[in-house]
Amino acid sequence: MTQRYRAHNSRRFPRLQASYLVKVMRLDDFEPLAVANTKDLSLGGVRFSTRAPLEEGSLVRITVLLPTELQEVSAIARVLKSRPAQGKDYSTVILQFVEMANEDQKLLKDLIFRLLGTREAKHLFDEEEIVTRIVGEESVKESA
After folding, report:
1. What count of other Cβ atoms lies within 10 Å of the Cβ of residue 91?
2. CATH number (domain holding residue 81)
3. Domain that holds residue 69
4. 88 CA to centre of own chain
5. Residue closest to 107 by CA, chosen among 63, 61, 72
6. pTM of the predicted model as reported, rounded to 2 decimal places
7. pLDDT in tens, 9-37
8. What is the number of domains present in the chain?
9. What are the b/e assignments for 4-37, b being 16+ CB within 10 Å?
10. CA-based torsion, 129, 47, 78, 23: positive or negative
């Protein structure tokens, strides 16, 4: 029996799987709470792993170094999730951008969409993809 599923991307922004240096600071202090490499990045936020404790719901200042642009973007972000990785001594952290300068938004948007259109980076999910599942066998992917 074949079941067809329509893939749907409920995210507001596409995610770029990329490793960029990220620095996280308190709002009132420029001393880093965490320095890490991103796992993925979007216009809505960033995901990374760190040993630094970041409290869910707290606001932080973040800077992401974009070496391909020889620039950095800064934002104020909310810690959406900070969960210990299973069997590891670090946490996976997801930040949501809540405030970012227009120039930084444009720089980040241009970078993400340029890289998503090349082989330099991998888009994590193609919303036009249809997945066909055959019960008891591996899934087969077809383009829409």
Report:
1. 18
2. 2.40.10.220
3. 2-143
4. 20
5. 72
6. 0.71
7. 455 778 888 899 999 999 888 788 899 99
8. 1
9. eeeeeeeeeebbbebebebbbbeeeeeeebbebe
10. negative
